[in-house]
Every structure is written in C-alpha cells, then in structure tokens.
Amino acid sequence: MLIRLPSGYHFRRRVPSHIRDVIGKKELWLSLGTSKRETAKPYACAVYAQTERLFRSVSHIKTELNENENFINDELPEDTRELFHLLIEDYHHQISLLKQQYEHQKLRHSIEALKSLEQLEKTQNVAERGVQLLKKTFSKLQKQEPTDKSLNALRNQINEMQAFLKPPQTKPSPLFSKASETFLETKTNVKQSVIDGYRATFKRFLEVCGNKPLRDYTGEDAGLFKSLMEQLPETYGKQRNDTRTIQEFVAVANKKNLPRVSGKSVKNHFTRLSGLFKYFLLRDLVDKNIFTGGWQFDTKAKTKRVRWSDNDLKTIAGQPWQFGTVSNKTANMIVGIASYTGMRLEEICRLRPQDIKKIQGIPCIIVQDHPALKNQPWTEWSAKTEAGSRVVPICKALQKAGLLDLTQRATNQGRHYIFHDLQFSGKDKKRSAHFQRDFSKLKTHLGIGKSVVFHSFRHNVSTKLRNIHEHGEGGLRESWIDDFLGHEGENKSVGNTVYFDDVDITNLLKVAESVQYPNFWNVENLFKEKA
Asked: What distances in angstroms separate CA 136 from CA 130, 131, 133, one per listed residue?
C-alpha cells in the first residue's frame, strides 16, 4: 500500500499472520524517498513484487513442513531455519538493489534537468544578444531609407525573438468569492448539509484572509487561518443565528478561557479548502494547493466513548420518559433494539415494515438501502458501508418486547415506517434527531457522564460478544460478530473475503441470542409513561 506522510511516500504491507513467526514482523515499511506520486508508484510496485515473492516462498515451505507455529519457532531443523534466513536476506538484498536503481534514476533525471536548464540559459543569452544586434541593424537601415519590405521582415524577426524571451503568461486567477461559488456548483449530488458546511468554511476563510485571487494566497494565509480556527470555543457552530466573526469568537474564548474545538473540526475545514484548491489546480488557475503537505492536527477524540456499565443501565431503567415528541413505547423499543443488536440510531429510526422478514423461519431485520419516496428526496438512505448492509436476527428478548407486533401493526395501518411518531428534522433530515436530543437530555439529567452516549450501546454489544471465547461450546467466530454488527472485519484472508460471503443465518442467530443483560433490563417496560 502506498502511504503519503509529511516526509514523503512510504510502502506499507501487512505480513500474513501465518508467516509472522518466520518474518519476525507484523508489517513491512519502506521509505520511498520521494514526495512525487509518479515516481513513488512504480517504485512501490517493484517493492510489492519482491515482497509477494518472499511471502509465497515462506508460505510454500511452511506448507511443505506441515507443522504448527511452536514447532517452527522452537524445534525447526537447522537447515530449514537457515533456508528461511537466506530467503529474508535475499529479500533485503533485492530491496537494496531497487533502492540503488531508483536513486540512480532520480540522479539521472536531475542531471538531465540541469543540462536542459543550462542549455535554455545559453539559448536565452544568445537570443538577447541577437535582439540587440538586430535593433542596431534596424536603426541603420532606417537612416539609409530602405524599402518597406526589408524593414518589415527585420521588424518581424525582432518581434519573434522578443516573444521567445518573454516569460510565459499565466492564466488570470479568479477571486476566492467567485471561485468558491463555481466550485459549489459542481457539488450536484451531495446533501444540503454538506453544501452548508462548505459555505461556513469559505465564509470564515474570507473573514481571516480577505478576498483575493486564488494565486495570491500563500502558506502564510493557510497558517493564519489554522491558528485562528484552533482557538475557536468548543461551542462554536451550536447556535445557527450567531452572527459573530471568527475574531470575535476567539476574543471571547480567550477572555473566558473556554475549551477549544477539536483538531478534527479544524482538519475538516482544511479538507474543504483543499478540495477547492485542488479543483482549480487541475485547471492551472493556481500554482499550489496550500492546504496539503505537512499540516498537523490533533485528531484524538476529546471525550473517549465507553460502554454502558450495569450501574448506568440501572440508572435509566424504569425512569419516566418526559418528552412528548416521542412516545415512551417508541423510546423503549429504540433503546431495546440498540442494546441487543448494536444497530446505529438512524438505522433503527428508519426501519420499515418490509425491513422485517423471516429467513429460514427466523425473523430478521434487513439493514438495506432505501429508495426515495416520490417528491421526498430526503427519504433516500443507504447503509454506512458495504458491510453496513446486513441481516440481523431478532432475538427472543426483542420478540417478547413486541417488535414483531409493532411491525405487523405498521403494516396493517399502511405506515411507511415502523416508528410513526418520529419525524424528519434538522439540516441533515434525520428521523433520529428529536429522539437523540431527548435521550441526551435524559441521561444528562440523571448524572450520566459525557463519555456514555446512545452509540455506546454498540460498544456494549461488541464487548459482550467478543468476550465469548471463539472455541468450545457456545463459541462465536470473529467473522460472525463482524457480520452481525456490520463491521468490515480485520481478517482479510482469501477465505474470508472471497469464499465467506454470507454467514449462515443460524450462526447469526447464535450471535444475537448471546447478548444478555441483567433482569432489570426489561425492554417492554424500560421507561415509564410521563407522570
């Protein structure tokens, strides 16, 4: 894999788990010594070929030996151990040769470029002297009253040589304000919230660096913008109608010593501006993308998300649901589904009757793409990733709580969604917005900390399942758990990625029934009705 770091491009490849005991490493890294992708790519391909050759050779020998890892490590015959050693030594030797080859190639290109530059300078010097001589000749001819034809020929020759010496003209660069609108016009198939995010970023950049032609912006402008954005208060962007400038926000944050925005937020602003500059760089309207390179951002989460402890679960269980926008029955079922399946909140809130089906006699939730309803484009929805489209068997706890009855009722009444009291809202047009707000208020009111959120139910399910040992009675394979949760999974072996396309539904049911909670966690009566 080709990795771009501030120091340049690197080659990285994971060592297959079954030969790590021989190679002695989990990953192979190599600096390619260049920041130019067109140079790094063929170099990386050559390194990949040598790496593949090593992996195949070691794998073949291990297959021939047909022994386990302990035998390989502790009791390997000396001649076989030496063979592995020679294979690895040969690999390092081949990599060294490749490195020398590409270093020589870079040096040869540099020498050729230098020769071309020297030749150009000589040609320019000769042309400049020629222009001076031609001008003197032209002056003498004018005094001798020659024919117009000879003067015109000489004048044309002088003009041609001056045009050669004149530096090439760059295309005029558009003003940032106009360029940003041109760029946004290309974003035809994105959500309005994405467009709003771009506009907010462009507005702040104009406040900091002013409206100039794109070519006039420098790395100093990007650095100033980054510095001010990093000083914004944590609450920045929470109030839609706040008209304060970025400088005013920073002044208040400094005066009151408020917590600042995350590095991830600042990086998002840079990513949007980088997209704008890349668009015009490809059209030769800027000379450089000033938002790429070695910019560093602290992208570590300020609040680490943790799972719900039994004490936290006991705190919310049996509490009255005080919010009128969503019924307590809906709240019960949403939280119940999340706690037993690990489904994401929006996945749950968008469930339709046709998403509940029986497969081999087992009732299941089908997490799948939704086409848009007529004249309602916001109803279109897709799973988060390819792995997000999945089958989730409904465990007995959720069946007992009435999920199947609720689905049947929605079908009988001709409703499009199972949870009829949820509405699309917010700039992202999500069905989960009101519930998420109300649930957050409830847990905060009960004194549950910031690190525990609704998404933490997904952590609960993952933790409970991965604590069940893979081997023995009741064991769960890692690939079953990944398929149940909609994770792509870390095991990228050929067997998993090619031949293990669909986990058997009985294995998924085994996963679903393995999620257990204490007796006080009763989905049917999780929240009391409002007093």
From this structure: 10, 9, 5
The rounded distance, in Å, linking the Cα atoms of 138 and 31 is 60
- 229/265 Cα distance (integer angstroms): 9
Quick: pLDDT tens for 232-244: 988 887 777 778 8
| pTM for this predicted structure | 0.57
Give the C-alpha separation, 278 to 290, whole Å: 9
Domain boundary among 49, 75, 101: 75
The values of phi and psi at residue 305, to 5°, are -80, 130
Contact 343, 367 (CB under 8 A): yes
Structural domain includes residue 350: yes
Last residue of a domain, one of 75, 108, 137: 75
Residues 362, 481: one domain? Answer: yes
Which residues span the domain enclosing 40? 2-75
> Is 376 within the bounds of a domain?
yes
Left (φ > 0), alpha (ψ -120 to 50) or beta: where does 407 sit?
A: alpha
Among residues 79, 80, 5, 69, which one has the least CA distance to residue 37?
A: 5
* Tally of domains in the chain: 3
- Residue 459: inside a domain: yes
The predicted-structure confidence for 163-201, as pLDDT tens digits, reads as follows: 655 665 667 889 999 999 999 999 887 878 888 899 999
